[in-house]
Amino acid sequence: MQQSLFEPEGGKEALASGAAVLRGFAAKRESALLAAIRAIEARSPFRHMVTPGGFEMSVAMTNCGTAGWVTDRAGYRYQSTDPVSGKPWPALPATFLDLADEAATAAGHPGFVPDACLINRYEPGTRLSLHQDKDEADYAHPIVSVSLGLPANFQFGGPKRSDPVRRVALEHGDVVVWGGPSRLFHHGVLTLKNGEHPMTGARRFNLTLRRAL
Ligand code: SIN
Ligand code: FE2
């Protein structure tokens, strides 16, 4: 069956069952989102976490919300305090909550209320290898992923690591949502290319809004 994956009215591209790319969905909030990231990093700075296997991640990370995703030699988990500051993570800004709800609804997952947001900072040469988001308590909730700054090639595979992977070019303001049948699908980000973005310089930020607890 041949079917158009692009619906011009909403700029929504189906990726898999339960998964969609919402083109430019976050664009009108770009200034508020970037200001919120600056406020968060002033209290919980970006840091390079270490995998349980002892490798330092090339992507720098921080969090906001009642729980934050961390990794160290002890494993992957969510925790309520930032191990760097020793304090609770900064609260989820209203602009993140509103965007998460609207994007999830647009992608067919209404009523999404995240309690955690992992913030990734990519510089040219950094990448995020194929993985599943599976440290959350309940997979009934979707993931809402917001791209800001430099473009990236996002990979979206399937339930098995060896499943074929689609490559999706993500631009500033694009939002990807996956949930339901594709909630545990593998995904990653290919090595970021050199570039300069008018709002972020030589960086890409990604917000992944989750319901962790
Ligand atoms: C992630 O899987 O945590 C981030 C995905 C992205 O940066 O687009
Ligand atoms: Fe992820």
TrEMBL record:
Residues 113-213 form the Fe2OG dioxygenase domain. SUPFAM superfamilies: Clavaminate synthase-like. Its cofactor is Fe(2+). It is an enzyme of class 1 (oxidoreductase). It comes from the Bacteria. PROSITE patterns: FE2OG_OXY (PS51471). InterPro entries: Alkb, AlkB-like, AlkB-like_sf, Oxoglu/Fe-dep_dioxygenase_dom. Keywords: Dioxygenase, Iron, Metal-binding, Oxidoreductase. One of its GO terms (molecular function) is broad specificity oxidative DNA demethylase activity. Its EC number is 1.14.11.33. PANTHER family: ALKYLATED DNA REPAIR PROTEIN ALKB-RELATED, NUCLEIC ACID DIOXYGENASE ALKBH1. This is DNA oxidative demethylase AlkB. It comes from Reyranella aquatilis. The gene is alkB.
